[in-house]
Amino acid sequence: MASGWGITGNKGRCYDFWMDFSDCMSRCREPKDCTLLREDYFECLHHSKEFRRRNRVYKEEQRQVRAAAEKAKGGGHDVHH
């Protein structure tokens, strides 16, 4: 993982993030000083923020499709009783 070698024998995709985080941790007074670099490294490894964002976008798209279909189904008129 942090060795620097990827599966193709080249530098790993997250190695630069690891080096930034590692350098920060070796120089900082408190680990919390490196929180943003840690987040960048973890995001590179796991893509959790990216997946959450994609999921939110997908859910919103689906909501809009359902709303449009419901509006078309009802003839586009809002009927209030």
From TrEMBL:
Pfam families: Ndufs5. InterPro entries: NADH_UbQ_OxRdtase_FeS-su5. Signal peptide: none annotated. PROSITE patterns: CHCH. The keyword NAD does not apply. Coiled coil: none annotated. It is a peripheral membrane protein. It is found in: Mitochondrion inner membrane; Mitochondrion intermembrane space. Transmembrane segments: none annotated. Keywords: Disulfide bond, Electron transport, Membrane, Mitochondrion, Mitochondrion inner membrane, Respiratory chain, Transport. It comes from the Eukaryota. Mammalian complex I is composed of 45 different subunits. This is a component of the iron-sulfur (IP) fragment of the enzyme. Belongs to the complex I NDUFS5 subunit family. Accessory subunit of the mitochondrial membrane respiratory chain NADH dehydrogenase (Complex I), that is believed not to be involved in catalysis. Complex I functions in the transfer of electrons from NADH to the respiratory chain. The immediate electron acceptor for the enzyme is believed to be ubiquinone. This is NADH dehydrogenase [ubiquinone] iron-sulfur protein 5. It comes from Rehmannia glutinosa.
